[in-house]
Amino acid sequence: MDAKKFSLPPERGYDQAYALSYQMASERLAETANVPELCRSAAVECGPSDEGWLILLPYLGGRYRVRCPEVEILAVEGPAPTPRDKLIMLHYLVTAKGTPPTGRPVTFRELPEGNVYFPTFNQRAVRPVMDRFGKDPEQLLKAAGAMAGRRVEQGDVAVTIDALPRVPVTFVVWRGDEELPPQGNILFDANVTDYLPTEDITVLCETIAWRLVRSAA
Length: 217
Description:
single chain, alpha+beta, TATA-Binding Protein, 2 domains, four-stranded antiparallel β-sheet, elongated
């Protein structure tokens, strides 16, 4: 489906910007004429309710109920969603185009404006994972279990987490040696920006990274 371009608000002045972004995304969802079609594009379940529609949205190993047109997001299984979690969920629903996976992994730098955002992305999403798991990457597999992560064949250790139904995120770690420090990367399917804008992907990966770090702790 066609959708307006959405992005997450910056950290500075976040409360006011969040409220505006959330309102815009909520209005977009509430104005959707064909909710079942939207849900097919996003690969989520939905059904009618007395108030309108209920959407069941998997997110980071949990499940969340999204009500519309009076938008409300509540946890069914998993932690209570933060404001940024809620905004990512709404952006996913209203942005999803329903394009199939390409099977072609891409790095963050290959996304639209990825080079511009990469220093922030690296600091907020890659660095915490490398600091915690670079010397013991096997622990990454255990930490990812809380988000239903699965091991994949990349690097020395890699795990894919289905952040949203059509947004797999793969964390890859290469062990260091006497000459080189540990290295890491995050990979996506090439269709990822058919489901989330680049700014949202940064925040989503940061959220996953710190969940991994806290889980290992």
